[in-house]
Amino acid sequence: MSIRDWPAAERPREKLLEQGASALSDAELLAIFLRTGVAGKSAVDLARHLLNEFGSLRALLESDLVQFSEHLGLGPAKFAQLQAVLEMARRHLAERIRRDSALESPQAVRDYLKARLRHEPHELFGCLFLDSKHRVLAFEVLFHGTIDGASVYPRQVVKRALAHNAAAVILTHNHPSGVAEPSQADRQLTRRLSDALGLIDVRVLDHFIVGDDEPLSMAEYGWM
Predict the structure, then answer these.
(1) Closest residue by Cα to residue 37 from 54, 65, 12
(2) Which of 91, 108, 123, 157 allows an S-S link to 145, with CB 3.0 to 4.6 Å?
(3) Strand (E) or helix (H) holding 43
């Protein structure tokens, strides 16, 4: 049966307009993105099939072009559309954290860092540079590592803080393993960077570690 033959309240698009996007399942959201199904499968059936093949919505969203295009109903055009949607979401989150003080919007900061770093297969280290009112001036990924770690040089962090005329920074890096627990090296690095930035009167407000769940705040755990 085609989706247009379903009761109006059960059609994904109509359900979204009436109840909001959060009321939809992963399959229903994906069906709206797909728009159409394939022979013998409605868009919702195809969405369920794809989620089963990928294992999760996140795995589908984070797949590369080759992986994505190997699956029924998907190809370069859909991949391009998906990347555009994801990039719009990241830019929306970036605008949210630029409007207000980062300290007054901790969830917005977490959401932005998840969008930027959680899908990365290798470890990255970055900084949110803040003004004197703790509004975000810029975000930069400063160091790229391997699956095991990244070499972080305090001199480069200090250089970029001066370039942005920052008054404070929030440090962040991802753990590709998915486990956000800080290592002893993470704590030592945080202290080294705090000492180096303190020499130019730039405060380190927090160090977020991005894993599979919510980013972990070292400041909240008293590890700063």
Answers:
(1) 12
(2) 123
(3) helix 43-54
The confidence score (pLDDT) of residue 45 equals 92
The pLDDT of residue 1 = 47
The pLDDT value recorded for residue 215 is 94
CA distances from residue 129 to 76, 118, 165, 166, 184 in whole angstroms, order as listed: 36, 20, 9, 6, 24
Of the candidates 202, 182, 186, the residue with the CA atom closest to the CA atom of residue 194: 202
Query: Do 176 and 121 meet the contact criterion of CB atoms below 8 Å apart?
Result: yes
H or E stretch at 33: helix 26-34
Which residues in 98-123 are b (16+ Cβ under 10 Å) and which e? eeeebbebbebbbbbbbbbbbbbeeb
Amino acid at the residue 209: I
Region(s) of the chain under CATH 3.40.140.10:
99-217
pLDDT at residue 157, as a whole number: 96
pLDDT along the chain (224 residues), means of 10: 56 90 94 90 93 94 94 95 92 80 81 91 94 93 78 94 97 92 90 96 96 92 84
Class of domain 99-217: alpha beta
152 contact partners, CB below 8 Å, separation of at least 6: 125, 142, 143, 189, 193
Tell if the pTM clears 0.90, that is, is over it.
no
Q: Please choose, from the candidates 34, 43, 46, 36, the residue with its C-alpha nearest in 3D space to the C-alpha of residue 72.
A: 46
CA atoms in the 13 A half-sphere facing the CB of 191: 9
